[in-house]
Backbone:
């Protein structure tokens, strides 16, 4: 039976905890004691609880300095209100958001490639000939104008 709970790869765990991936790699033996496992494909599956257990804090984000401007009305959050469960949930949501952002960027790139291919195919089409009725109408006008000059 496969587990459906959320896990991090080494790279995702490092990004979520705002540390170097080598830090996660060094802590792998301790992470294994808390539930991290190496998958059949060789990638690590690290649960957020294991990161918490070894002293890492998933859910940190690299926020630009100007984003920290709190000039609008907000109430400060007490440290007691930020529980490990909230950090884990934030880490999960942040990682899922990043995966969706990457998926959307890939989809947009694919759409642009399809549009370029279709535009090229459209340019390579030969121009069509006018419809028969339109052609007859043009020939009829030419004959009429030719009759005026006679």
Residues:
């Amino acid at each position: 039976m496969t587990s459906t709970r959320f896990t991090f790869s080494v790279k995702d765990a490092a990004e979520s905890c705002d540390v170097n991936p080598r830090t996660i790699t060094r802590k792998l033996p301790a992470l294994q004691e808390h539930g991290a496992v190496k998958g059949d494909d060789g990638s690590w599956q690290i649960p957020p609880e294991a990161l918490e257990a070894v002293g890492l804090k998933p859910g940190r984000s690299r926020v630009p300095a100007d984003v920290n401007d709190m000039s609008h009305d907000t109430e400060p959050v007490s440290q007691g209100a930020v529980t490990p469960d909230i950090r884990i949930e934030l880490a999960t949501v942040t990682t899922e958001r990043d995966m969706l952002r990457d998926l959307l960027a890939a989809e947009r790139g694919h759409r642009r490639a399809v549009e370029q291919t279709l535009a090229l195919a459209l340019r390579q089409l030969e121009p069509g000939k006018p419809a028969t009725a339109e052609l007859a109408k043009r020939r009829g006008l030419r004959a009429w104008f030719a009759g005026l000059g006679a």
User: Anything to note?
Assistant: The first strand starts at residue 37 and ends at 38. Residues 84-124 form the longest helix (41 residues).
